[in-house]
Amino acid sequence: MTRNPEQTQSAVHFDKIGQIAITVDDLARAKDFYQNTLGMKFLFDAGSLAFFQCGDVWLMISTSDKPEPRGGTILYFKVEDIQETFALLRGKSVEIVQAPHLIAKMPDHDLWMGFLKDPEGNTLGAMSEVRPGGVPMPGS
Question: What confidence score (pLDDT) does residue 11 get?
Answer without folding.
Answer: 59
